[in-house]
Amino acid sequence: MDVIVCLDEKNGMLFHGRRQSRDRRVLEDMYSSFSQRVLSIRPFSASLFAEHYPGQVCVDPLLLTHAKPGDLCFVEDLLLKPWEDQIRRLFVYRWNRRYPGDFFFDLDLSANWRKVYTVDFPGYSHQKLTKEIYSR
Questions:
Q1: 90-125 per-position pLDDT tens digit
Q2: What is the pTM of this model?
Q3: Strands 129-135 and 114-121
């Protein structure tokens, strides 16, 4: 499976059960990059996609358990370590800011992962966003 995550500079994902931030340019980039694929998400993320991308997402509370090779999963509220061996590529969007966080990305990208692509682009509410792609 391929997994998409959004991280701050400290690899934070959530704070008190809420996403740290969001930026509409990330969603636009995701859909321009993955428009031919269905995006699997958890119910937690449904509000991000319901208004602008109906029909292009599949909401599954157990998405990583049900994911098959080739599936594209957006993850905001799960640890990935238990599924690391099943992840083929990681798409990381970085906020380039430090937000308060209490739930952090749990994969070590310096071990077993190779960065194959990186690009900076302007966000809507963030001056700079970074997209990184990692593969095994």
A1: 999 999 899 999 999 999 999 989 999 999 999 999
A2: 0.95
A3: antiparallel
Q: Is the pLDDT of residue 56 over 90?
A: no
Cα first-last separation, the chain: 12
Is the pLDDT at 52 greater than 90? The verdict is no
How far apart, in whole angstroms, are the C-alpha atoms of residue 122 and residue 126?
7
| Number of other residues whose CB lies within 10 A of the CB of residue 23 | 17
For 50, the token pair is 């319901």
- CB atoms under 10 Å from CB of 99, counted, come to 16
Bridge partners (DSSP) of residue 40 are 58, 73
26 closest CA partner among 50, 6, 1: 6
124: left (phi over 0), alpha (psi -120 to 50) or beta: alpha
Tokens 């990059």 -> residue = 33
Closest CA to 16 of 77, 87, 88, 93: 77
